[in-house]
Design brief:
Blueprint lengths: L1 E4 L5 H12 L1 H4 L10 E2 L6 H9 L3 E7 L5 E10 L2 E9 L8 H15 L4 E7 L3 H9 L3 E8 L8 E2 L4 E8 L12
Parallel strand pairs: 5-6
Antiparallel strand pairs: 1-3, 2-8, 3-4, 4-5, 6-9, 7-9
Length: 181
């Protein structure tokens, strides 16, 4: 697996990829589908993805396979001491092969490189398997919640949805040893 960073030229392909990973029939082959929770709509549109790419101290990290195929993506944004994570997407057929773990580690490294001491994300409360996945990687619910967005462009909830706030402290790497003169 290789790590790359998305550019605006990747927006159309990346939009299709994210929507396939989260919504529609193809997403049901993976364990991260939202198709049972939301009807219609897209997870992201191209304009929204371009906006995410243009945000200050933000990137969309890409996991590429040996032939350059897109295996996964993850949005990261450093804001003061907080790293905000969103939209971890892995191709449904490739789930369970370490892509998510690879991208999560790369995202946390991005945060450390930007001086972040805490990593934060929002997860739909009705996704216990996803919450457990992040808990195994050191994330903990803070007790805070946020309402699920009410924009029908991105899907209509089939039941009331709430977003849980998860956080993890990011240990900073030890300072480099001084080089001999």
């Amino acid at each position: 697996m290789t790590l790359a960073t998305a550019t605006p030229a990747d927006a159309a392909r990346l939009t299709r990829f994210v929507n396939t990973a989260f919504r529609g029939e193809d997403s049901r082959r993976g364990w991260t589908t939202e198709a049972t929770l939301l009807e219609g709509g897209e997870r992201i549109d191209e304009a929204g993805l371009l906006e995410m790419l243009a945000a200050p101290n933000a990137a969309i990290l890409l996991c590429l396979g040996a032939a350059g195929e897109l295996l996964g993506s993850f949005h990261v944004q450093a804001e003061a001491e907080r790293l905000h994570l969103a939209m971890l997407a892995v191709a449904p057929a490739g789930q369970g092969q370490g892509v998510g773990k690879f991208l999560l580690q790369a995202a946390e490294d991005y945060g450390r490189q930007h001086g972040c001491t805490v990593s934060k994300m929002l997860v739909i409360s009705l996704r216990p398997e996803l919450i457990a996945y992040y808990e195994r990687r050191g994330y903990r619910p803070t007790g805070a919640t946020k309402p699920f967005p009410a924009d029908p462009r991105f899907g209509i909830p089939q039941q009331p949805l709430t977003l849980l706030v998860l956080e993890k402290p990011l240990a900073q790497p030890p300072p480099a040893a001084p080089r001999p003169l």
